[in-house]
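Annotated sample (chain length 260).
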Amino acid sequence: MHQLTIAGKAYRSRLLVGTGKYKDFAETRAAIDASGAEIVTVAVRRVNIGQDASQPSLLDAVPPSQFTILPNTAGCYTADDAVRTLRLARELLDGHPLCKLEVLGDPTNLFPNMPETLKAAETLVKEGFEVMVYCADDPIQCKMLEEIGCVAVMPLASLIGSGMGIVNPWNLRLIIDNAKVPIIVDAGVGTASDATIAMELGCDGVLMNTAIAHAKNPVLMASAMKKGIEAGREAFLAGRMPRKYYSADPSSPTSGLIGS
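Output written by the structure step:
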């Protein structure tokens, strides 16, 4: 199967995972290993990656030599805050340009503020960042983000941390069919079947955090998500049989039966 390519770099895994909400860095690393993920996203405002030299750094448990670190702007509500946060992250990560932009509009539902997201994306792309962007499942605005120069567009499946799965598959199909950059579902996945459905729809990958970290057994759920992603991708490439709503189609040959 073709690998996932983002900003010119190829990845074997189509599962991207977060690093928040685990009980400690050891559990974080164990879950990441079980997931097979190669891209790991980090909330710069919430997790220490060198901002505080007196505290343990996540990068000791998840080193950039083994993973692609994807700094994100979780907790930012304006374009200016998001841009400032990613400039800091680029310094902490020795000039690393790949980033995940998210600009939130409401602290309760964590839905993206799309005008501020578009504004921040324009600034970051002009400054040489390789922007992967969390956004609403709006086909028009997703295309606008692609045209700005984002390297991947990441529409939500449902609200962050909700576990509700894909609530609007029709919008996702419109986005996928009109895209020339990777489309990665970000937010709302609850279990492995949600990830499989996203991949069967034709998404290029899935990013998740809460679905793994808040499972009763995070490491086992990470393993399940890995398999769900792989199964969904294979099913998409295989091409499902057409649905037949008003007729049955025997799976065994009918020729040679008694009376035929």
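Annotation: The mean pLDDT is 90.
Annotation: Residues 139 and 152 are 14 Å apart (CA to CA).
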